[in-house]
Amino acid sequence: MVALPPSLRMPAAPTTPPTVITPRPSPPVVVTSCDPTGCWASDGSRLTRFGSNLLGPRGVCSTGGGILNCP
Questions:
Q1: Cα 67 to chain centroid, rounded
Q2: Which of 4, 39, 52, 53 could disulfide-link to 34, CB 3.0 to 4.6 Å?
Q3: Phi then psi for 38, rounded to 5 degrees?
Q4: What does DSSP assign to residue 8?
Q5: CA neighbor of 43 nearest in space, from 25, 30, 54
């Protein structure tokens, strides 16, 4: 059996599996302040007051405990 020089040997397999980093969920969007025409959200968006509802860029938003749910 012929010994291979170190430069031609296969590297050893890693002993620990690679670490998988899972993305952190984004914080919920909340109402930060309101005036007679609408509200500002914590993500910087402006929500227009539409009767008793708030209208976001994609439709009517619902609120529950200050947390916004906009489509």
A1: 15
A2: 39
A3: 165, -165
A4: G
A5: 30
